[in-house]
């Protein structure tokens, strides 16, 4: 799924220079305007912590272009800030004041204004202020907007009183919720989405004199106050001032319960007035009480708006609502079977409420938190990098609880189901336990460790209030040029199926009975189906080369390779399935490529029909937009194809409206809607969300705990694949002097890869963990580290060069899209220098095989380390012999890029290292020849007949180690092909045939 985002950064300005021409003051007694930005070149384009203007966006192509342009019609001076934009997610620009300089005091002024060159496109443009905090990236955000519904230059005046506190995103999670104006750090502009346009801006300045009555505000501690029937709601009113000074004049709040769905019989009406006298300190509170009555009648939830009329201060942005909880209705009875609860609730819902349940929005895209109730939204998600700030478990739980509170204001109080891409641990949260990516888990060949990593992930995700994980990826990667290769367990569907124990780690037992536990989450099998088989060059998404492209296969290949893992996932009770962005082109059906999100044959026919999948189908990120046709057609086609919930990050309002219109027009049946909503509600009931919608943080202390990191460390150790070990260089000895070099030796961001904290991931110290270098140092020995191998190499016994890739995700990482499979020039130089000076081991930290070419002969030991996660100690464990190397290649390691795609079972197969290859240490390799293999074959068949899985696997492993020793590094095509096929046979339980293939490889060596 594509990264969503944090929506806007926000901040600005440095350097206040006088205007050459002051704008006319608003009133005779007003002070002269104070310039903030003239755009004459006095403020540079620069990133924090330096003061300056910078751009941002959700994707690489979303940040706008900016320039200081000379224009004859400039409202002030000679230049204006101009730019172009074409934004799919979010994007804009910010002016931050320099962090090293004091914040600015704007409290003496009425507001801020600027000139805007209107394009008359009717789009809203968000304008934000940064208030308080340590700097422009750690301040509160206050927002408003104006509409570009004019042509030519217009001065936009915005009183500070018009700015509201951003409830969807705060860099610091909120300081005091008061627009103080005494410590201002800048401003930001968020440009329109979905329209290609240009803009120009000039002369940002402060204007007018502060009106003391507008510097005070009254707020409530919540917008929604749920209360059980007969209980009393307590609404806390707080008076606050900019600058936190006492109020100069009295502030009066008249209050009255009025309107809503509750009647006077349901509560005691409240009406009155309260005055905060002059001199009242900022932050003073007063509590209003709204009593409700018991009538012993089963009812849906009822609302009681508390109308507030404020004199002398700004009123709350929302009218607070007391909500009498739904009660006495069958769907609320946890003793009833889930099916009966679903039937009862569904029978009560309107079409609008059902459509809302089928709608999933990105949390950062909510225009107002009240939209959750207004549109009856069923789900929110955080895409990659869409995090609260501070990015802590506590902030996650608080944020999601706030969203769940809003759902309490709906008629049936149906809880949200919140989803997140926790694809290798709770990877969005700083400090969480980050597991190896799936490619490394596949290398372990250990279903037990796959289960354990899933269990740790589930526990950490659920402890932050999230009940739904968009994992695991069950793709079968068939071309390592694919930027998502590392999300796959491997190229063999049998290996993918073997690792599906992760589903039980996430969900618990297959019947769903464990889903309401505080350490389990709903899992998602993705991306259905064939995403790993797309042809190189077939993608039409931006600059992608293979991701989201076309999978062209026969029906037989589709069934055997790509569909097989989903059949077993359904048998394991996986709760949701996500279709792929890619298209499927079945050879011989004459239909050509069909977008998976539009494939009724595959979703309704195969998944829900033949496989009898009873969970719900969730779309990928804005994926229905890729279906040919207009938006109404996209909605109609996807829903009729079998999608139950649509991920429409920034279009939730449009989608819900279109869905309702299509049903009313008869183009989508109500039966289809009821089926979709029933599936969604079923999982919500199974998760226990109706009984416990809020975060159970009792397990939060285990996030990133020593116990969880021990699981990740073990997984990292088991994932290491020893490809070459000349002269038994590994394991290292503590007595050796070790020279460590390479770009990935000491970089936690590089070793965790994409989908870590942000969508694409990033290099550097992005989250707590142990780098490979730190693990080596802790393992003992005398260690010298030189990233670029520039330090003297003399006097060392062995070198360890840790090289590989920098982070990427999805199509951004496609080969040909700015990436290849070659080591960087710096890594090549480090390998050359170290391996020329001493015995050396090269560790390749990457999401896919890297091409070593002629360097392989100069390397004594070669390790495929994959992306091991935060626990570099696990890598050191096998390097120094604390654990043996046991990993095996989950994908074929090619000699050249021209060989791609190359996979086990290919008619022509001549790799550098075959699928399943993996040397071992600390284990005596079996001796013998063909007679020994014949005996192992007899024993393997006996184990197969007896159903003795462990014995069968152990026998085949003995044969594999024996054959690997025979082959050595002289791997020929005639030996590689049966060797690789043997591992596939092992995974499918055909132990005798596996030994036969290994025997053939032995003879060919």
TrEMBL record:
<dbReference type="Pfam" id="PF01915">
    <property type="entry name" value="Glyco_hydro_3_C"/>
</dbReference>
<feature type="signal peptide">
    <location>
        <begin position="1"/>
        <end position="25"/>
    </location>
</feature>
<dbReference type="InterPro" id="IPR008979">
    <property type="entry name" value="Galactose-bd-like_sf"/>
</dbReference>
<keyword id="KW-0677">Repeat</keyword>
<dbReference type="GO" id="GO:0008422">
    <property type="term" value="F:beta-glucosidase activity"/>
</dbReference>
<keyword id="KW-0106">Calcium</keyword>
<dbReference type="GO" id="GO:0016020">
    <property type="term" value="C:membrane"/>
</dbReference>
<dbReference type="InterPro" id="IPR019800">
    <property type="entry name" value="Glyco_hydro_3_AS"/>
</dbReference>
<dbReference type="InterPro" id="IPR051915">
    <property type="entry name" value="Cellulose_Degrad_GH3"/>
</dbReference>
<dbReference type="GO" id="GO:0008810">
    <property type="term" value="F:cellulase activity"/>
</dbReference>
<keyword id="KW-0326">Glycosidase</keyword>
<dbReference type="Pfam" id="PF03160">
    <property type="entry name" value="Calx-beta"/>
</dbReference>
<dbReference type="GO" id="GO:0030245">
    <property type="term" value="P:cellulose catabolic process"/>
</dbReference>
<dbReference type="InterPro" id="IPR005087">
    <property type="entry name" value="CBM11"/>
</dbReference>
<dbReference type="InterPro" id="IPR001764">
    <property type="entry name" value="Glyco_hydro_3_N"/>
</dbReference>
<dbReference type="InterPro" id="IPR002772">
    <property type="entry name" value="Glyco_hydro_3_C"/>
</dbReference>
<comment type="similarity">
    <text>Belongs to the glycosyl hydrolase 3 family.</text>
</comment>
<keyword id="KW-0378">Hydrolase</keyword>
<feature type="domain" description="Calx-beta">
    <location>
        <begin position="205"/>
        <end position="309"/>
    </location>
</feature>
<dbReference type="InterPro" id="IPR017853">
    <property type="entry name" value="GH"/>
</dbReference>
<dbReference type="InterPro" id="IPR003644">
    <property type="entry name" value="Calx_beta"/>
</dbReference>
<dbReference type="Pfam" id="PF00933">
    <property type="entry name" value="Glyco_hydro_3"/>
</dbReference>
<dbReference type="InterPro" id="IPR036962">
    <property type="entry name" value="Glyco_hydro_3_N_sf"/>
</dbReference>
<protein>
    <recommendedName>
        <fullName>beta-glucosidase</fullName>
        <ecNumber>3.2.1.21</ecNumber>
    </recommendedName>
</protein>
<keyword id="KW-0732">Signal</keyword>
<dbReference type="Pfam" id="PF03425">
    <property type="entry name" value="CBM_11"/>
</dbReference>
<dbReference type="GO" id="GO:0007154">
    <property type="term" value="P:cell communication"/>
</dbReference>
<dbReference type="InterPro" id="IPR036881">
    <property type="entry name" value="Glyco_hydro_3_C_sf"/>
</dbReference>
<dbReference type="InterPro" id="IPR038081">
    <property type="entry name" value="CalX-like_sf"/>
</dbReference>
